[in-house]
Each structure stands twice: as structure tokens, then as C-alpha cells.
Design brief:
The protein is α/β, with parallel strands linked by helices and about 300 residues long. The chain has a single domain, classed as 3-Layer(aba) Sandwich (UDP-N-acetylmuramoyl-L-alanine:D-glutamate ligase), CATH 3.40.1190.20. Helix 1 crosses helix 9, helix 9 runs antiparallel to helix 10 and helix 10 crosses helix 11. The chain starts with a strand and ends with a helix. Bound molecules: alpha-D-ribofuranose (RIB). The site of alpha-D-ribofuranose (RIB) has 16 residues, from strand 2, helix 1, strand 7 and helix 9.
């Protein structure tokens, strides 16, 4: 199969993961059951997932000039991700994510650190990597002006952009207009469109409010996607044994980008993405369960339609 070239511009974090039977309330202490230090960051996770799925991946981002940064760059290299555009900077420490995993579900606090040093100028330095890509893959753990610059440069060369609008913020219409496919979950969709997620409309109405191509992820329920003609299609999730959902969205985005880079239509791309993300939750850690191309194909081959 074609090895698409994917340039990921985004965050690189060290995940500090605590496992607990129950998340404490304010003022309470509980005993956890495990602690791990694992590579993460939505950008790096998506880069690794793309590489495992057979893409040629270039990562653009920043780490601190510290132990976490050096380890994360090495881990990216071990996953065959090109790190020529990953810069160690001295004025901030490597981004971290404090993650609590309770019965397979997670809550996350990200401290961006060096990820906030990804400026529009740094993105301009990676113009060649954007120009050469079949797909540019973005998230929102780096400053929005850098994301907007990546969208602008990709547009200049006609390179499609997949934007994972996480963590959620309201997005300017001009930025969204330059995106080929946007991939929020239900909550991020409301925020992205500047609606209150607490008083949110039915997500079908929200999907209709967005005029572009969209894949809305819905956890174990799979994904809903809307195409240019406005029709909404549900791709159901696949039943698996859930160990840890961290990184499932990242795997889903990466797989979608890889399939778009291979020229697949939305139906095939979303099905593949939902299958890849189902496999990702069967192992611990954001990158621990990210499947290879062969594993996704074998899994889909076993599904009876
Ligand atoms: O999407 C999961 C990721 O979000 C984690 O790896 C963490 O670093 C945060 O960025």
C-alpha cells in the first residue's frame, strides 16, 4: 500500500500516568495502584500512530533541553519518525501531561512548557516538510497562531489538512475554511462552534451547523461523519476489551490522515480509523496500543459485515 507522507505539527509530552481505583474528591487522599512515565502529547502520539500504520512521518515541535525531551526525541526516532524539525529549547521544560486512569477511562492536565514555543516562525521553518506532505495533521496543544500558519502554508501548496480540535477552543471560521477534515469529539464540536456544551443541541444539529467535511468521534460508539453533500453517516464502534482509552482519539486521527493520504474515500477512511482506535484501547498507555498497518488489516479482515 502507498506510504503517504504525513507532516505532524504539534505537541510532545511526557505522560505521568497514575492508576487509581477511584479519583479523589477535593481534600481527599486515595491509594493508587500504579505509576508510569510514558511518551505522549497529541502531536507525538499522532506521529507515532501514523508511522506504525505505514506512513513516512515528519514531526514538527519543541521539547525542553532536558531529560524528558531527549528521551521523547529518541522514542520518536525509534518509531521511524523524522525529528529534523523537533527543536530542543532552553527557555522552557518539556511539556508534561498528568494523567489519571480510573477503570480504563482517563482525565488529563497538560502543562505545555516547550510546546508553547512552537511559533508561526517555527512553522515557517518547516515549510518544505509541509509542501512535501500528502497530508498535514494538526491538533491544538500548540499555540493557535502556529496552527493557523500551518493551515495557511498547507493551503499555499494544496496539501489537505486534518485538524483534531483538541483540547477544545472556539475556532475562527477563516481557519476552519482552510481545513480539509476536522475531527472533534461531541464536546469539542460544541466548543469549536462556540456553543455551550452544557446546553448543547443534539449533535446532529451541531454537525449540520458546520459546512465542511467532519468526522465526529463518539468513543465506543464509533464516529459520525458528514460529507460535502451534508449527509451524516454513522460508523459504529468495534467491540474490544478496554484497558486504557488514552490516545484512542490520536490513533483515530492518525489512521484517518493515513487513509486520506492513500486517497481513500471518507467511508473507508473512517472505518479504518475507528478500527485502529478500537485496537489502541486494548493496551495501556497512549502509544502502547497503537496498532500497525498489519494489525488493523487483520482485525478488519475478521469482522463479519
Ligand atoms: O490524547 C492523549 C494525550 O493528551 C496524552 O498523551 C497527553 O500527553 C495529552 O496530550
Amino acid at each position: 500500500m502507498k506510504q503517504p507522507r504525513i507532516t505532524v505539527i504539534g505537541s510532545i509530552n511526557m505522560d505521568l500516568v497514575t492508576e487509581t481505583p477511584r479519583v479523589p474528591t477535593i481534600g481527599e487522599t486515595v491509594l493508587g495502584t500504579g505509576f508510569s512515565t510514558l511518551p505522549g502529547g497529541k502531536g507525538a502520539n499522532q506521529a507515532v500512530a501514523c508511522a506504525r500504520l505505514g506512513a513516512q512521518v515528519t514531526m514538527v515541535g519543541c521539547v525542553g533541553d532536558d531529560g524528558f525531551g531527549a528521551e521523547l526525541v529518541q522514542r520518536l526516532q525509534e518509531e521511524n519518525v523524522n525529528v529534523d524539525y523537533v527543536e530542543p529549547i532552553t527557555h522552557a521544560s518539556t511539556g508534561i501531561a498528568s494523567i489519571v486512569v480510573e477503570n480504563g477511562d482517563n482525565s488529563i492536565i497538560v502543562v505545555p512548557g516547550a510546546n508553547h514555543a512552537v511559533t508561526p516562525e517555527k512553522v515557517q521553518q518547516a515549510e518544505e516538510a509541509i509542501k512535501q506532505a500528502d497530508v498535514v495533521l494538526l491538533q491544538l496543544e500548540i499555540p493557535l497562531p502556529a496552527v493557523a500558519e500551518a493551515v495557511r502554508i498547507a493551503g499555499k501548496y494544496g496539501v489537505p489538512v486534518v485538524l483534531n480540535p483538541a483540547p477544545a477552543i472556539a475556532l475562527p471560521a477563516e481557519l476552519l475554511a482552510g481545513v480539509a477534515v476536522v475531527t472533534p469529539n461531541e464536546y469539542e464540536l460544541a466548543i469549536m462552534l462556540n456553543r455551550n456544551p452544557e446546553q448543547t443541541e443534539d449533535f446532529h444539529e451541531l454537525l449540520q451547523m458546520y459546512s465542511g467535511v467532519i468526522m465526529m468521534t463518539k468513543g465506543g460508539d464509533g464516529a459520525y461523519y458528514k460529507q460535502q453533500d451534508g449527509s451524516v453517516v454513522h460508523q459504529p464502534g468495534f467491540q474490544v476489551n478496554v484497558v486504557d482509552t488514552t490516545g484512542a482519539g490520536d490513533t483515530c486521527n492518525a489512521a484517518l490522515a493515513v487513509m486520506i493520504g492513500r486517497g481513500a474515500d471518507m467511508a473507508a477512511a473512517v472505518r479504518y480509523a475507528v478500527a485502529a482506535s478500537a485496537l489502541s484501547v486494548t493496551k495501556f498507555g497512549a502509544q502502547g496500543g497503537m496498532p500497525t498497518e498489519q494489525e488493523v488489516e487483520q482485525f478488519l479482515g475478521q469482522i463479519k459485515e
